[in-house]
């Protein structure tokens, strides 16, 4: 039973399958001013990375211009972006963090 025409001629329209919610990539962007140690600290603090992982991702951003730091549900991704942007602003660094649907 797929929801279509199950009961006494009444056709109903339903989706054949349930859909999983979209996931969102959270990305860090390079700039010329934010100190490398500050970026490493952010990655440890807000993304739960160990120091080696954080340093590696920071270097990828530095060299390539940006990197995906994690993939999350919409609400978690939004929170991560807000936490990073707020922390950077409070420390007066121009670091940018964005999210994009996968
Ligand atoms: N490019 C910065 C520097 O040379 C370091 C940096 C890395 C800045 C990653 C932002 O997302 C970033 N100090």
Automatic annotation (TrEMBL):
Residue ranges constituting the Adaptor protein ClpS core domain according to the UniProt record: 20-98
Region annotation Disordered: where it falls in the sequence: 1-18
Signal peptide annotation: none
Alphabetical list of Pfam families matching this protein: ClpS
Superkingdom in the source lineage: Bacteria
GO biological processes: proteolysis
Gene Ontology MF terms in the entry: peptidase activity
InterPro entries in the cross-refs: ClpS, ClpS_core, Ribosomal_bL12_C/ClpS-like
Keyword terms of this UniProt record: Hydrolase, Protease
Keyword Hydrolase: yes
HAMAP family linked: ClpS
Annotated function: Involved in the modulation of the specificity of the ClpAP-mediated ATP-dependent protein degradation.
Stated family: Belongs to the ClpS family.
Alphabetical list of NCBIfam families matching this protein: PRK00033.1-2, PRK00033.1-5
Subunit structure: Binds to the N-terminal domain of the chaperone ClpA.
Protein name: ATP-dependent Clp protease adapter protein ClpS
Taxonomic placement: Bacteria, Pseudomonadati, Pseudomonadota, Alphaproteobacteria, Rhodobacterales
Gene it is expressed from: clpS
């Amino acid at each position: 039973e797929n929801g279509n025409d199950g009961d006494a001629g009444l056709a109903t329209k339903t989706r054949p399958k349930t859909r999983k919610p979209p996931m969102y990539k959270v990305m860090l962007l390079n700039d010329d001013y934010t100190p490398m140690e500050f970026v490493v600290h952010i990655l440890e603090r807000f993304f739960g990375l160990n120091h080696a992982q954080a340093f590696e991702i920071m270097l990828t951003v530095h060299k390539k211009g940006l990197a995906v730091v994690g993939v999350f549900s919409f609400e978690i991704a939004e929170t991560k972006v807000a936490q990073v942007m707020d922390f950077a602003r409070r420390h007066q660094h121009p670091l940018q963090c964005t999210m994009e649907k996968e």
